[in-house]
């Protein structure tokens, strides 16, 4: 049976404030789904109801078909979560911290050592397993936190902004880990749209406690990004004014901007100018174009959808 998460009419009110309003969302299969929305949209509230940290005012949260409010133990048996940014006792080593979690989660004593070694291996922390966590960087601590979600070999993993507060290297490491979890259902909230584009296949967007759209990234981009394409182009030398002007005046180019001296971002209308033709034309300018990196239209789609709900 494929892993699944389902919200059926899920609602949460805090006094007069409605944090989540009748959310209906069903996700099924092994994939990574990005959970998007502005601050206060209801993302963390939703995740906390899926994990039983808070109860719903009405509606149902189900994991693998089991109602969390009716049988939390059974619902969470095949699910691991990382909500917000938990701390690890600084006096413990990763191995000690994970051993304690294994005991709490009921992992059989005969399997604990193997599970811990495998989890630390997945997050590339084996060489640090005997060092005290108090001496770790924030990125290293977060890798241990992610390792903790793997101990019970879950079918479903819920991650609440797993790379928040990390430096670029730490973000990259966490993304690599999430990408390696392809045989599970990963439900991940994030404000970093580039991160979601890199690691997720689908996105669910909520605002003001309501679901706006749930679909593949490709479909969301095609429907709501204004039909535009975008590519970041890298040059071997600084892009001069003449080259920039020539690119910006190409038929079909809708926007031209400089990322830095050697990189530019070009947006274009695919109906007028194909990506292949754009590449050929810019390469033919002999201006030192070296790399062409397609950019996702997810940001444009996100902004378009959020503006419509204001």
Report a brief summary of the structure.
The chain is α/β, with parallel strands linked by helices. 34% of the residues lie in helices and 30% in strands.
Description:
By secondary structure, the protein is an alpha/beta fold. The chain has two domains: 4-223, Rossmann fold, CATH 3.40.50.300; 225-309, Alpha-Beta Plaits, CATH 3.30.70.100. It is built from eleven helices and 14 strands. The chain has helices spanning 43-50, 72-76, 94-105, 109-122, 138-148, 168-179, 193-199, 217-224, 241-248, 275-283, 298-309, and strands at residues 4-14, 17-28, 31-36, 58-63, 66-67, 79-82, 156-160, 185-189, 202-207, 210-216, 229-235, 253-260, 263-268, 289-295. The strands form three sheets. It has a six-stranded mixed beta sheet with strand order 6-7-8-3-9-10, sandwiched between helices. α4 (109-122) packs across α5 (138-148). The longest helix is centred in the middle third of the chain and has 14 residues, at 109-122. The relative contact order is 0.14.
List keywords for this structure.
single chain; 310 residues; alpha/beta; Rossmann fold; 2 domains; six-stranded mixed β-sheet; 30% strand; globular
- CATH superfamily membership of the largest domain, which one? P-loop containing nucleotide triphosphate hydrolases
Count the strands? 14
Strand order of the largest sheet: 6-7-8-3-9-10
* CATH hierarchy, class of the largest domain: Alpha Beta
Name given to the CATH architecture of the largest domain = 3-Layer(aba) Sandwich
**Total helical segments:** 11
CATH overall fold name of the largest domain: Rossmann fold
Could you name the ranges where pLDDT drops below 50 across 5 or more consecutive residues?
Answer: none
Largest pleated sheet: 6 strands, mixed
Helix-strand sequence: EEEHEEHEHHHEHEHEEHEHEEHEH
C-alpha-based Rg, rounded = 22 Å
Give the helix proportion (percent range).
25-40%
Strand content: 25-35%
Shape: globular
